């Protein structure tokens, strides 16, 4: 029997039991890819991460090695697992060690080595003294502009439900999403996606998932309302898509260059999440995509098998 400690976090929230859940295995040395996939199925969360501690010199040069799994597959990048894992590595100053990993409360930037390369997460304190993390994602790659009739058939929406002024387009800062602009909040609330139809269509495109967004919002201070539905149900907060959406929004004039905006997500499933995004537009180039938020620790445990 082997035991592996883990920590469960709620990401993109300042309130426990909201946001997007994440399990972080703090020392995954000795776990095979099959073990990690089985543990991710066991947690039944959108994603589970696994930290592989290395010597200080290697981590300083390359970053902390982290692997990300959904219930069905390993991902090269995902937003809330990156932010949550970095938050745990940063620590709160109340623990000298955490399951084999070295805490870095004095370090303003935590670098993670993911399958997409090194991803930095910068930490600061807000006006209330709360720890805030912001990752810099890869520069965006803009892909296919999708025919809205095809989007409608794949999602069960009507073409009239989609925002006529904005394109449905694939964007990737590490994980490709079709950003789908929806006209009204009422339509967003009523989404009833048949995932087979959705993924049958996605399988013919350059995108892996869809990210539905709307310029009507529920919460004061939010700029966009979002939903993401995939094979594990609905995602309360999608940081990778948040970066794609920020790049898309700056490219198409929904946001100004470097404008800080909040995407609200998870409202319909009673897991409200708030994703802070911004990106820079320099001429015709969008770069410096940043996605941030807050994280709350909710429980600790140990997996034995």
Count the beta strands: 18
Oligomer: single chain
What CATH first level of the largest domain would be assigned?
Answer: Alpha Beta
- Which fold name fills CATH's third level, the topology of the largest domain? Diaminopimelate Epimerase, Chain A, domain 1
User: Ranges with pLDDT <50 over ≥5 residues?
Assistant: none
Please state the average pLDDT score. 95
Counting helices, strands and paired strands, the structural category is alpha+beta
CATH superfamily of the largest domain: Diaminopimelate Epimerase, Chain A, domain 1
Helix share bin: 10-25%
Question: How far apart are the first and last residues' alpha carbons, in Å?
Answer: 5 Å
**Overall morphology:** globular
In percent terms, what proportion of residues is strand? 35-45%
How many domain units?
2
Largest sheet: 18 strands, mixed
Alpha-carbon Rg, integer: 19 Å
The CATH architecture of the largest domain can be named as Roll
Query: What order do the SSEs take from the amino end to the carboxyl end, as H and E?
Result: EEHEHEEHEEEEHEEHHEEEHEEEE
What is the number of helices?
7
């Amino acid at each position: 029997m082997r035991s592996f400690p883990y920590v469960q976090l709620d990401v993109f929230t300042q309130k426990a039991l909201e946001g997007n859940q994440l399990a972080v295995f703090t020392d995954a040395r000795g776990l095979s890819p099959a073990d990690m996939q089985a543990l991710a199925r066991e947690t039944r969360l959108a994603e589970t991460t696994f930290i592989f501690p290395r010597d200080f010199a290697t981590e300083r040069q390359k970053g902390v090695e982290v692997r990300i799994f959904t219930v069905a597959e390993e991902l090269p990048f995902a937003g809330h697992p990156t932010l949550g894992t970095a938050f745990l590595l940063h620590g709160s100053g109340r623990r000298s060690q955490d399951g084999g990993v070295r805490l870095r409360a004095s370090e303003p930037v935590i670098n993670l080595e993911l399958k997409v390369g090194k991803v930095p997460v910068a930490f600061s304190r807000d006006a209330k003294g709360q720890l805030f993390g912001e990752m810099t994602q890869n520069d965006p790659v803009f892909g296919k502009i999708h025919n809205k009739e095809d989007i409608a058939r794949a999602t069960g929406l009507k073409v009239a439900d989609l925002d006529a002024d904005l394109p449905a387009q694939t964007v990737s800062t590490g994980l490709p999403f079709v950003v789908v602009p929806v006209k009204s909040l009422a339509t967003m609330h009523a989404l009833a996606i048949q995932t087979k139809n959705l993924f049958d269509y996605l399988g013919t495109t350059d995108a892996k998932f869809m990210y539905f967004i709307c310029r009507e919002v529920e919460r004061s201070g939010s700029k966009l309302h979002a939903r993401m539905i995939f094979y594990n149900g609905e995602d309360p907060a999608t940081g990778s898509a948040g970066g794609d959406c920020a790049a898309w929004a700056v490219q198409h004039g929904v946001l100004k260059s470097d404008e800080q905006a909040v995407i609200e997500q998870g409202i319909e499933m009673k897991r409200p999440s708030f994703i802070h995004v911004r990106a820079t537009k320099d001429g015709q180039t969008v770069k410096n995509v940043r996605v941030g938020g807050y994280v709350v620790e909710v429980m600790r445990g140990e997996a034995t098998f």
